């Protein structure tokens, strides 16, 4: 939900609340801090919808909020690193696009769910595969703008 909420919110809200998280800040390398695709709309949608999804799955809203915050922080970290590597906004960087977005919330939750290293690795790999497959499906359904 944390990963998909920003995509759904963009489709539903169009440009409303589409303010860039980085405020357009350009660093000394000539690149934006995060880029135009990281928006207030995306973060708010993840922070609002993921706790609701957690409640629907029998978890606490607090845990859903923690997952959403970790996922958005990981996604922002990916964007920051891609900008520093000179990658254009919305370009694909296999692994870099997915791993921080799933690993950071898992590490945050692992204290309460006692996730061991092997479980963390399995969940990261499962997320990577699932995210790649769902991205292609959402592209075919014209929900995503790119197939990745």
Tell me what you see in this structure.
The chain is mostly helical. It has one domain. It is built from 5 helices and no strands. The chain has helices at residues 5-13, 40-56, 61-84, 99-113, 117-140. The longest helix is centred in the middle third of the chain and has 24 residues, at 61-84. It is globular, with a radius of gyration of 15 Å. The model has no long low-confidence stretch (mean pLDDT 94). This is CDP-archaeol synthase. InterPro entries: CarS. The chain crosses the membrane at residues 39-56, 118-139. Keywords: Membrane, Transmembrane, Transmembrane helix. It comes from Thiohalobacter thiocyanaticus.
Number of strands: 0
**Helix percentage:** 55-70%
- Calculate the mean pLDDT score and round it: 94
Secondary-structure-based class equals mainly alpha
Radius of gyration based on Cα positions: 15 Å
How many structural domains? 1
How does the overall form come out from the CA principal axes? globular
Count of alpha/pi helices: 5
Uncertain stretches of 5 or more adjacent residues: none
Amino-to-carboxy terminus distance:
17 Å
SSE order in H/E notation?
HHHHH
**DSSP strand (E) fraction?**
under 5%
Pfam family, one: CarS-like
Keywords: Membrane, Transmembrane, Transmembrane helix
Transmembrane segments: 39-56, 118-139
InterPro entries: CarS (IPR032690)
